[in-house]
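Human: If only I could read backbone structure tokens as easily as an amino acid sequence. Underneath my words sits a plain record pairing an amino acid chain with its backbone structure tokens. Take your time, and here it is.
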Amino acid sequence: MNKFSLPRSSYQQTIEEVLGVDLPFAHSPKKHSIRPKLLLLFLIYSVTMFVIFYFLISLSWNYFSEVFEHANGFFAYLVFILKIIFAYIIYVLLFTYVGSFVCSILSQKIFDELNSVRKRKYKYKLKKFSFFSTMVFIIFSLLKTLIVNILVIPVYFFVPVANVVAFVAINAYFVSREYPGVFLVKYHDKDFMKYYYTLKTKELYSMGAVTSVLCGVPIVGFFVPFISSVMFAKMVLDYKA
């Protein structure tokens, strides 16, 4: 198998590992027992995301309703379409980037849980103030991502087909830096992180593209950031100097 490829079963295997179940539609060769800590982290993530999602969607929906409360006829129909589009944009951005932020808060727990069951432990030492470093890293990363996405909003809205390609291409890059970065920044300096990104460019970008696409799928996208975080953590743990 090509070393840069991401096997179709890798996402399935990670889902099985998180939930402690064997998925019936794509059975993997080994049985997965329940991992209480990983499952608990998944549940914490899910509840947090649901609360944030519900608040943001309700806020945006009510805003449109108040601003255009007297709309009627074709204009009312147009407002309804705008509501749907805006809600979907919030949905995708929420699950790609707010999900990334929530997972960054849980990142050390995720990393430690995965590392605890490995025979070959991660050999690098955790830095002091690693949580602070992680928060600074993810906040600045998300700000950069937000600025770029704002700049290309005209493409997202007015260029059919190309808008999807642009969204995936742009956000795959940022995801491929942010998701593994929240783990790397706890143990390494900027020079090592740049080296790792260069070394694993194809693998990271492929995983970033998969994450960006799946975050746009209703319901599925709700859980994608956590599953992807686990996969990126495993990729970092698999690094061999």
Q: What stands out?
A: The CA atoms of residues 172 and 208 lie 4 Å apart. The mean pLDDT is 78. The chain has nine helices and no strands.
